Amino acid sequence: MKILRTHSADEFINWSGSLRFIPGWQVWPATEEAVCIYVRDAAVRSRKIRVVGSGHSSSALVQTPDILMSMRDHRGLIDYDLQASQATIGAGTVLHDLGPVLHDIGLSMQNLGDVDTQTIAGVISTGTHGSGRKLQNISATLVGVRLVTGAGEVVEWSAEEHADLIDAARVSMGLLGIFTALRLQLEPTFRLRRREYSARTDDCLTHLDELADAHRNFDFYWYPRRDEVKLRTLNPPEEPPPALPFARCIKDEEGFSHEIIARERELKFEELEYFVPAAAGPACFREVRRRILEHHRRHVGWRVLYRLIASDPGFLSPVHGRDSVAISVHQNASLPYQDYFDDIESILRAHDGRPHWGKKHSLQGCALASLYPRWTDFMKLRRELDPHGVFLTEAMARLVGEE
Ligand SMILES: Cc1cc2nc3c(=O)[nH]c(=O)nc-3n(C[C@H](O)[C@H](O)[C@H](O)COP(=O)(O)OP(=O)(O)OC[C@H]3O[C@@H](n4cnc5c(N)ncnc54)[C@H](O)[C@@H]3O)c2cc1C
Question: What structural domains does the chain harbor?
Fold first, then answer.
């Protein structure tokens, strides 16, 4: 079997189209051994490797002048334990394919984000999240990893034996190594009822706390042009729906969790998203709303998304140590977004926000370090695991202040 597969590369273009570059080589190793060979070779030749999942991130996480590696041949279910509701999954597995495979063995992921087209390694690596006051981001379900370090060695960690290392690995953007397999804490298969409502913005804000408490998953979209909201809720189907006298139900459907949480997105957009402490969420949103109504409504029709995420211990998780509200603004991918994002970003930062690693933001180095209590621990581990800086491209070095 040919285990090293390479071709000199075409241009890489991310999902939204705003990140483009031509890597030296694109490689898709067939085996873990081949991943190690590529990494050792890159270390000797001072080349940089970045791993790409589905290419949905729009920050420069996967940009590299040298080797762009895909783990597309490391997909699928590796093993599982029904009693513990855990499964080990190939790092390149796409969530949309994973749902039915887990369903067939009676398991399912606790939550998903808005879409399921990303890879499992990609969502873990950037802290991808859905919404629900008691629900954590997907990386919080990581209980074990196999990883190829920057020295080209395979290490295997579990949450039981290496709690700190797993907490570092949760949201690590490919800086500690290349995941080949991930073990996740799952749940027995479950169904959800999805209801969506339209409502006046002020009514939604008045009842925000009750809404967050009453529903397993809750978020809302605010539409600047109409100044109205769409509430999205997901609950166990057997539970009677909470009364929402101020809202009009516009959608009511039911299905297994993997069929009903994520949606399809065809229209391409750019996005800026920050996580602010949960208590600051409503005031921060009110300020964003005011600023958009006053300055941006003519140019921006795209909605603003308000989501809730429970805290987790990931060293670089944007919700590290604090329950959070994620506020994101969008712009059509074919329209200018920078001035709009810069203006809104200043509000989100003023509320002690931390940016989503995979979306547009302007923070680097010290500005990021000061937001994360375990930053120094993460960077120390990064240097130990990647002594030659194989994964530290210029863009990543600037991002984490390790130039
Ligand atoms: C339409 C759309 C909807 C989205 N919805 C949400 C949402 O609801 N919630 C949310 O939080 N985010 C959301 N995102 C952001 C998205 O989930 C993240 O950008 C995610 O990281 C993308 O996964 P990916 O597989 O495309 O990874 P990529 O973008 O290709 O890579 C992301 C990171 O993972 C690293 N990586 C990938 N594979 C490996 C590996 N094997 N080992 C080590 N590192 C690896 C990469 O190096 C990079 O640092 C959305 C993005 C889009 C385009």
Answer: 77-188 (3.30.465.10), 191-355 (3.40.462.20)
CA proximity to 313, closest of 160, 142, 72: 142
pTM of the model: 0.97
Q: Which atom of ligand 1 is nearest to the CA of 127?
A: 11
- Our mutation pick for probing the ligand 1 site, out of 51, 78, 93, counting the most ligand atoms within 8 A of Cβ, is 51
Cα 351 vs. chain centroid, distance in angstroms?
21
What average pLDDT does the chain have?
96
As to burial, measured by CB atoms within 10 angstroms (0-12 exposed, 13-18 middle, 19+ buried), residue 377 is middle
Pocket of ligand 1 (CB under 6 A): 15, 50-57, 61-62, 71, 91, 113-115, 118-119, 121-123, 125-126, 128-129, 173-174, 178-179, 265, 356, 358
What is the 56 CA–ligand 1 centroid distance (Å)? 5
pLDDT per residue as tens digits for the range 202-243: 999 999 999 999 999 999 999 999 999 999 999 999 998 888
Please report the atom of ligand 1 found closest to the CA of residue 147.
42
- Cβ atoms within 10 A of the Cβ of 39, count? 27
* pLDDT tens per residue, range 150-176: 999 999 999 999 999 999 999 999 999
Number of other residues whose CB lies within 10 A of the CB of residue 239: 11
